[in-house]
């Protein structure tokens, strides 16, 4: 589960990680109040107003702006809240901004070159260990750094049994070119950051930038935090951080009815049982000249009710020009699935306005094909993979 920057910072701070302080605001009035309160705590009258959406690259899209006084706080917050923020990580329509983080300005005026670092904590799947990835090149796209100057990206593998050890934290501070007080601060920062990652059951922390101020403080200016859904049962307070407005509505609906659905950009809807077969089906669609509109695993029980729910979800996407149903009848018998499709189709009537290609393989496949062929519905049946692909190509052309 992804959360907002301000929520991620709350989690970091609760484990002693130093952060750029701030308060979330839902309108310009609240933003001004937040700024006043921050000034009392920090003494600085400058603030940065940051759009809170689940997407990075906000700075580039005009979602992060500096306000030098309360009037500017009010103006900028009013401007950003309600806007559709388009960043390199959103779709072309962008994301609607519902709230902003009003944060202290931590880039001291007159500080000609503040040091910005990149740091992330994540699972290294090839070693089966956690890993800290870090770079001296903070504040910019890490993908660009990886491409242009890969030697400036460092990694530190961490044994989950021992956790991050002192010498590793010191190596990180050293590789970042720090010395003196800043070195000590970075060691503290990294140790607390790793502890936060572990204790919060997160699957990703990405802090870009980590800032070194001219008075040698190290702090998190940004925080992208992904929590592990499977651990949310033991973090009730984190589970409440979910912001459903940030999620794809069809995916939310699918989750509610227990279907595993991921929205994609193509024109062929797929309904498949089993994640592996779903991946293979997407390849099949591509080979036939189409693009998958979604990933959908209907799971083990493909009865009429479930098939109907799946059809309804797929058809919400008006880019869909055809639906390919690819079911392997192992535990579930093909003829039962076929009956489910026929019943769902009859139930939905005009709601189904695109051709459907059904490929059923496994137990009672022939009987299933017969059922579909004799139903009188506009459904094409296939037994072989290739046959199904050819049919998809035919209906698309
Ligand atoms: P992102 O663009 O979504 O990654 O958002 P960030 O939180 O990383 O902010 C984008 C950029 O805004 C940072 O790289 C900084 O250069 C700048 N920024 C963030 N906080 C401050 C601040 O307190 N003062 C100033 N002057 N700039 C800031
Ligand atoms: Mn950032």
UniProtKB/TrEMBL annotation:
One of its GO terms (biological process) is succinyl-CoA metabolic process. Pathway: Carbohydrate metabolism; tricarboxylic acid cycle; succinate from succinyl-CoA (ligase route): step 1/1. Keywords: ATP-binding, Ligase, Magnesium, Metal-binding, Nucleotide-binding, Tricarboxylic acid cycle. Residues 271-392 form the ATP-citrate synthase/succinyl-CoA ligase C-terminal domain. Transmembrane segments: none annotated. Binds 1 Mg(2+) ion per subunit. The keyword rRNA-binding does not apply. Heterotetramer of two alpha and two beta subunits. HAMAP family: Succ_CoA_beta (MF_00558). This is Succinate--CoA ligase [ADP-forming] subunit beta. It comes from Christiangramia crocea.
